[in-house]
Design goal:
alpha+beta, nine-stranded mixed beta sheet
Amino acid sequence: MSAAGRQGGPTSGTGGDRPVTVIVDSYSAGKFLPAACQRQGSDVHLQSTPEFLSSVPPPDLRPYLANVVHTTSDWRETATAVAAYSPVAVLAGQESAVPAADAVAALLGLPGNPPGTSAVRRDKFRMIEALRAAGLNCARQLRSADPDEIISWAEREAGYPVVVKPLSSASTDGVSICRNPQEVRAAVVAVLHSDDIFGSRNTELLAQSFLEGSEYVVDVVRGSGGDRHVCGIWRYEKTLIGAKRIYDRDVLIDPGNPEVAELVPYLDAVLDALDIRFGAAHAEIMMTPTGPALVEVGARLNGLIDPGFHDLCLGGNQADLLATAAVRPQEFRRRYGAETMYRKHREAMVIHGRTTREGIVERIDEDVLARIAALDTVRLVVPRLAVGDRMRPTTDLLSSPLRVFLAADRPHDLIADYRRIQQLMDDVFQLAPTQVAGAHGTNLVAGRSRP
């Protein structure tokens, strides 16, 4: 195969009269981009690696005109192959696609973010250092592979607890809150003996001072003319289990809340400091006693987006807004020409199921799923495991077995159904019996127990 091979789809080379958008690595939330862009044009998929990543489900290539495969380190050849479709924009489908999208957009002269600063949008150490250079409030940090160096730094400068995490992963993969040297050592070993969720080996890690306060997510889209629309702001509610802060639920907040007046200007400054000039951004920000402080930001869609649910609660969704900014920039500028903000149409909550169980899923109880789906506020129930999958104790978003989207007119209705779902969700997945060797032979132990 050549440096930029083409697989699937028509071979005519263009999308006809419809504007073409290139989507790089349409894993994760990127799966929502084809439908959003095809409402306004056509799509070509760009696969930034010779083979699909094994750590995440592969993208569905059926909606695309073609799949262009990048097989060398020379992005010029790949950009030439993509140019045959006369695209109007290049969009990152997930976190790891950000440098590739930057490079191809620049080579084609399309709106995008400078490839020379891609590293500050992917490497979390460089990200925070860029904020520090811009004078923005942020965590103290150290980049290292040496647990002794991190322990010395924590005791000398940061104080406990400290946060240890991979440099370029996502979904809280490998993130630990360490309260003492022993926990630091364990976290460092765990990270350095693993790959991140995009299949890259962790050779160094990031240690940061612990940010105290409430955590928020702010999603935005920036147009090519500098226009910016805030798509939604959610408050994360997490549960501390050991060294892990486990997602429990996300709660949509009103754009008139007082903290919004601090969060949004801070994020605008973050976007400028990180050269996020065009496209989607998903930021996690801690509201600390000294003001907002960035946890991290991705130059891509929110990984937890569900377009229909967001349309219901927010009057729009980040995928459609990004498609408009890419394909119809003048319309985006007309509708969002100022620094505009979402409207809250419903009270909304997203529940992230968690479990302490481990084993192979033998059966999914459809009756229990139906009972959850029948609750008044429930709009969508998403089991994240199938029969034959391995369930493991929840330590991050990737190991959450169930996601439930709720909307209502009154907050207390959400809370009431949240409590009902907590009682039901552990019955959704039935695990296969496990064999346990005992004094009198092998026993079968039922693979279900409540935490």
